[in-house]
Write a structure and sequence with these properties.
The protein is mostly helical and 74 residues long. The chain contains two helices and no strands.
Amino acid sequence: MNIELFIFGVHGQFVWSAFLFTIISCLFLYLRTKIKLQNMEKKFSEHFEQTQNFKVEVLEKKTHSEKALSGSLI
């Protein structure tokens, strides 16, 4: 294996520092975005949890009233 491939000649210090900076920046942005998404999902579920329960109750009441108003015996 040719070690010169990883050393990049006299420019190796610049290339490896650029790789390291890019990897750290991408990792930081990924983790920050992941944490913000989890916080937003938590707020969303807390806000809309009550609304979904109410909609389920309304739908159940509608099906009971439809059964009572239908004229069939089945």
